[in-house]
Amino acid sequence: MLGEGLEEVMLGEGLEEVMVGEGLEEVMVGEGLEEVMVGEGLEEVMVGEGLEEVMLGEGLEEVMVGEGLEEVMVGEGLEEVMLGEGLEEVMVGEGLMEVMVGEGLEEVMLGEGLEEVMLGEGLEAL
After folding, report:
1. What tens digit of pLDDT does each residue of 73-114 get?
2. How far apart are CA 26 and CA 123, in angstroms?
3. Gap between the Cα atoms of 38 and 54, Å rounded
4. N-terminal to C-terminal alpha carbon distance within the chain
5. Could you give the angle at the alpha carbon of 83 between the alpha carbons of 22 and 55, nearest 5°?
């Protein structure tokens, strides 16, 4: 399901289910994803290959998600989110300005109102 008012959408091969909301400017989804749900009002979304489930909230400016993630949930109102490869589960709250998450994390949960968060590799949980 692709919403109305999209400027550019590129979806990779082998996807099982993709739902893209309205008002997006650019969406690029990699191959081998099982389920991708992208909210409305995003400016740019890039999702890597091999993800099992990705849910992106509304009002994001730019989201880049690496390969090999099992589940990613990104809240609304974020300006930029970059998630590394090999994460098992990432949940990012609303109101963050910039989030960069390194590889090898098991679970990351970020609260609202943070300006910038940078997480290194090998952390179990934050």
Report:
1. 555 555 555 555 555 555 555 554 455 555 544 455 555 544
2. 32
3. 8
4. 34
5. 35
